[in-house]
Request: fold
Amino acid sequence: MEKIVIVKWRIKESETSRILKLLPELAEKTKSEEGNISYTIYQSESDPCELILCEHYTDTAAAESHKRSEHYKKIVAEEIIPHLEAREVILVKKLV
Reply:
């Protein structure tokens, strides 16, 4: 069964430009993972510190594999999460 994850990040204002520079590499490497269907990052038009990530994987195993990848550990766990004011992970299922 496909796995869809929505993640909401609130970046510390002082870290926004630095973190935005990390996102192209994160997206490129994630999209090349086996089991990744899509990976899109959005920025709020009204608040540049707010990002929404939409992640779509073939199954739960692929989503879990993403969290164990070297680029996730290096970019997300080490370089982004410590500089967030808030982080929300929402697991969703497609209805229609």
Remarks:
- The beta strands are 3-11, 36-43, 50-57, 84-92.
- Residues 3-92 form a domain with the Alpha-Beta Plaits fold (CATH 3.30.70.100).
- The mean pLDDT is 97.
